[in-house]
Amino acid sequence: MYSLLKPFIFKLDPEMAHDFAIKSLKYNFLPEDIFKVENEEILKTEIFGTKIKNPIGLAAGFDKSAEVYNSLFRFGFGFIEVGTVTPKEQFGNPKPRVFRLENDHALINRLGFNNDGLERVSKRLRKSSPTGFLGVNIGPNKDSENRIDDYLKCIKEISNFANYITINISSPNTPGLRDFHNQNTLKDLLRTITEFTKKNSIQTPLTLKVSPDIAEGEIGYIIEFMKKFKISGVIISNTTDKNRESLSGLHKNEVGGLSGEPLKNLSNKLIKKFYKEIKGEITIIGVGGVSSGLSAYEKLKSGASLLQLYTSMVYEGPGIVKKIKAELISILVKEKIKNVREIIGTGS
Ligand SMILES: Cc1cc2nc3c(=O)[nH]c(=O)nc-3n(C[C@H](O)[C@H](O)[C@H](O)COP(=O)(O)O)c2cc1C
After folding, report:
1. pTM over 0.90
2. DSSP label at 67?
3. CA–CA separation, 66 vs 251, rounded Å?
4. Ligand 1 nearest atom to the CA of residue 259, by list position
5. CB of 238 within 8 A of CB of 197?
6. Distance, CA 239 to ligand 1 centroid (Å)?
């Protein structure tokens, strides 16, 4: 059905098409059955101690203000991450700010954390209990005087509803945000967060979402601090503001974060490096260019226990989850693998 609608949808500005998708999803009209696959038991896995049906998640940024997560669960995702949510509502950067690079199977966005803000988001989460495992991705307001405090405000409120919380330090579209990757700044952030969660008896698992543009030398201390401050997971990765040389799309030089196919190998390489040093103590969630069973398989083999996607759903519609699952199942069956977890890290 999506292939019939796609020519019309792609005539719209990408952000307008996205807003239309969110509005439609509020009606929750698609029957769940059409997204079912056979033999899904082979994909059964766990996320922070909870059993889920499969390791394919929706990445942050699609349902930024937690408006339609229960409709999205019907597409067959094993888990969903909403956000990025900031304490105060935020408009983001001037439009246009999302660009399709069709031949490259990629997007560039410079949205800048547009979202309805903590109060409205938590109202929605309170009103409509998630029907699946739900993460909430949080970040600071652009004009905030104390960004660490913004993370704390979000953690305090969101921990009432979320199954996990992602500390997003990696959007390229909030000036200075990625400075949180610096050694002292990161240590300070994670130490303050841990002290805060301890003091407030908050036990929600925390994940850290990192940039694909970090230097090799930064990996060691990022892992050291994650272990020291009991971060449960690392999401590798956010979009890149590099890697434009090989692109052919008209918009290849737009400022913003690049996602989709051209991010795939960059994120896979980083996952492998993290996997080698993490030694199983922290869960890796792999993101970037997951669009097929094979690309999911490669990311799992690189060391990711769980996966997320965004851009491939823009290009292929909601059926993408079913397609990835069916293709992945057929690869696993061919290789006589009994459960998807057996392949994690076997290619790193
Ligand atoms: C339009 C758009 C908006 C995004 N917004 C966010 C966001 O608010 N927070 C975040 O952590 N990541 C955001 N991302 C990044 C995605 O979560 C993901 O890390 C990235 O797109 C790579 O995955 P993909 O190649 O499957 O798209 C956004 C991505 C896109 C394309």
Report:
1. yes
2. S
3. 29
4. 25
5. no
6. 6
